[in-house]
């Protein structure tokens, strides 16, 4: 058996046994030095293409998953996921496309005040995180998406989000985005952000006391 075939088998075994998706770097640390992990992943992905189980890259990490067209077979065996409210879905979309974004900016886009629990839910589910503090009066916290957001929606990266025009048509985005708009890398602080400090623990419910969101 060739060295490349051995590497594919080793990667297959690692991904099958792993508790979660693995990055290329994590795989390389477990494999013999010098092997071409990227080439082996590409070959393995091609070998599984069209089968009941496929090799997919989500949020920069690799995992085996059920083929999308066979998801209906699992409906009776899967737990019903926690559904997001319409307010939470809209808030999540705004954060994804506008990040880094503050609570006040989210409210400005939606046209209503954020309810006490909307951001709490998204933070508790790990779909968004506090990124930093805006260098403006009051130093409001900014929010961005997480890798768990990408994994939940099966997105390799933020660049694979639905088109901005489509989201605008759904009313989930402001209409003043520039033509060359691109979602920024959520791992990087923006020029007008400061990093969070140790005292910025996510006691997020205190930011929402006394607010109401009509009709939610």
Notable characteristics:
216 residues; three-stranded antiparallel β-sheet; Arc Repressor Mutant, subunit A; alpha+beta; disordered C terminus; four-stranded antiparallel β-sheet; 2 domains; 8 helices
Count of individual helical segments: 8
CATH superfamily annotation of the largest domain: Winged helix-like DNA-binding domain superfamily/Winged helix DNA-binding domain
Proportion of residues in helical segments: 25-40%
Instruction: Give the distance, in angstroms, between the N- and C-terminal Cα atoms.
Output: 61 Å
Q: For the residues shown, what is the average pLDDT?
A: 78
Instruction: Indicate the radius of gyration in whole angstroms.
Output: 20 Å
Report the order of strands and helices.
HEHHEEHEHHEEHHE
Protein name: SMC-Scp complex subunit ScpB
Biased composition (Basic and acidic residues): 202-216
Biased composition (Acidic residues): 191-201
InterPro entries: ScpB_csome_segregation, WH-like_DNA-bd_sf, WH_DNA-bd_sf
Give a structural overview.
- The protein is α+β, with helices and mostly antiparallel strands and 216 residues long.
- Helix content is 35%, strand content 14%.
- β5 and β6 form a beta hairpin.
- α1 packs across α3 and α4 packs across α6.
- It starts with a helix and ends in a 21-residue tail after the last strand.
Give a quick summary of the entry.
The protein has 216 residues and is an alpha+beta fold. It folds into two domains: 72 residues, Arc Repressor Mutant, subunit A; 122 residues, Winged helix-like DNA-binding domain superfamily/Winged helix DNA-binding domain (Arc Repressor Mutant, subunit A).
């Amino acid at each position: 058996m060739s060295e490349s075939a051995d590497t594919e088998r080793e990667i297959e075994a690692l991904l099958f046994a792993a508790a979660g998706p693995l990055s290329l770097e994590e795989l390389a640390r477990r494999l013999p030095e010098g092997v071409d992990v990227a080439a082996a992943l590409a070959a393995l992905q091609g070998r599984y293409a069209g089968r009941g189980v496929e090799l997919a890259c989500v949020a920069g990490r690799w995992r085996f998953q059920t083929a999308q067209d066979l998801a209906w077979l699992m409906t009776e065996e899967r737990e019903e996921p926690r559904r997001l409210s319409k307010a939470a879905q809209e808030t999540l979309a705004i954060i994804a496309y506008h990040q880094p974004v503050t609570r006040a900016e989210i409210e400005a886009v939606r046209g209503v005040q954020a309810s006490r629990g909307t951001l709490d839910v998204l933070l508790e589910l790990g779909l968004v995180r506090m990124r930093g503090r805006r260098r403006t009066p009051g130093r409001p916290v900014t929010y961005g998406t997480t890798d768990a957001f990408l994994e939940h929606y099966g997105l390799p990266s933020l660049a694979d989000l639905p088109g901005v025009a489509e989201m605008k048509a759904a009313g989930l985005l402001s209409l003043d985005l520039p033509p060359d708009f691109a979602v920024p890398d959520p791992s990087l602080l923006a020029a007008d952000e400061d990093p969070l400090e140790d005292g910025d623990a996510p006691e997020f419910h205190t930011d929402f006391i006394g607010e109401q969101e009509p009709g939610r």
